[in-house]
Design a protein that fits this description.
single chain, 66 residues, mainly beta, 5-stranded antiparallel beta sheet
Amino acid sequence: MKVTYDPGTDTLTVILKENTPVAESDEAKPGVILDCDDEGNLVSLEILDASRHVTEARKIEYQTTA
């Protein structure tokens, strides 16, 4: 998994499956884009105007729970 934030476009992207072609993109909610592969599996998601929707777009915390 890979998370990127582009301050120039204010876009936060979460890539769930790297090197997987995107076959379809849908705007699930205003400013939230879901990218799926040709089998309908979620590949990535993108949040537009991220600084308005995310507490700290430049900071990420990763946690694994048991």
